[in-house]
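Hey, does this match?
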Amino acid sequence: MSTLLEQSTRVMENIRKRGADLEKYVDMLSLLDRNETLFYRVVIDHIEELMPIIYTPVVGAGCQLYAHLFRRSRGLFITKREKGRIREVLRNWPQKNVRVIVVTDGQRILGLGDLGASGMGIPVGKLSLYTACGGIPPDATLPIMLDVGTNNPALLADPLYLGTNERRIEGAEYDELVAEFVSAVQEIFPKALLQFEDFANHNAFRLLKQYRDKVRCFNDDIQGTASVTLSGLFSAGRITKRRLVDDKILFHGAGEAAIGIGDLVVGAMMADGLTKSEALSRCWFVDSKGLVDSARADLQDHKKPYAHAHTHGPVPDLLAAVKALKPTALIGVSGQAAQFTREIVEAMSRLNERPLIFALSNPTANAECTAEEAYSWSDGRAIFASGSPFAPVVLNGRAFVPGQGNNAYIFPGVGLGVVASGARRVTDEMFSAAARALAKLVTEEDLAKGALFPPLTKVREISARIAEAVSEVCYARGLACVPRPADLRKAIEAAQYQPEYKDYV
């Protein structure tokens, strides 16, 4: 009989023979279906190679083709037809000690838009990272799709589409369904952390605002993205010798990820001594209509705190904003490819000895620029981070290793900390603590290569450190329901799931 290591070696040998990444994705899902223990052993041991396969960027293609790649159902699908009996649906789940739930309604999957029920690949993939990166036991996780229809005409016309073949419900009907769902989770899985994932902007902000002070929940697109980006800014400051409060940050995009980053940055700047007004003034946003400023009368509520007055005249686009505002950091979260042009990167490089260029949009095809473009257009002076992975770049004989601002550095550790401490609520202070904990793990050797984040090979250790930092916030703020152990980190590490054949002889 083969050992777990031998089986893992065999799996990787076959995965590497696959020509297309999508084929590797399907192979890994099939492995998850037939041998969960082996799946996690393989992923943990080859995390850098396999994370892009089981999650971004390949999961995006997997979701687009979800109905055509379908093998078996994972998780729960809840439709409007279950309204009034969602508790009954949740009780049907065989595992009763659920500690982490990832839920989506499929309306804004990555940068791909409305994929309806095909977006189920996101909760499944996200929870696999909770286990592989954070150590949450797989039987304590539950992926859920709120299948409320889709407005994607291609899906509605696809005879193989697996979701509700109707246009999306909205308004009061939608809100009532979500409210019943959240209430049912509290009753059936009272210890569960609820993560909202890939909801459209107009729902993401208001749902988070509605529930964050009532139940144990967060939105990873808003808060997780913010935390890993803030950590990257902390690390970049060690290179530039500049404090965060000295930065002026220009965001391309003003959706949930951008505003979430801005809000967490403002909080961090206030913690470092600025007033709220001063901190807000360090953050500027460009949306599809140009610079978000006080002269605009068409702004959504989440943009209004960042609508500053200025004397630069009309600022219709990103290049004009760079020239007018002279930012030290440019952060792309627009979901639109190739927005950081050569002219823009060169302008940032004239303004700054070490310009910060963060191209964070996912998947890879939506990145605002590539690592090679950022480095070559800045003559190797850019401090670069991306949302999707890029290969190392050699320029003028020097090797650059671009850092991936992957939320997987943050949410597994936050979830682990919430579970370990029994936190009743999830706060922005926890995400700020996670960002600082992650930045402290970046070595001088990492920075010398241009990497703003530690190697993903250390992600289990990273998650334990973040969980410790999050737990400390919980205990300090009286949010914990679990007594504090004498050695907090040791207790967290001991609780991390380890894939092994317990009965193997």
In short: The domain at 224-408 is CATH 3.40.50.720 (Rossmann fold). The radius of gyration is 22 Å. The mean pLDDT is 96. The CA atoms of residues 70 and 162 lie 9 Å apart.
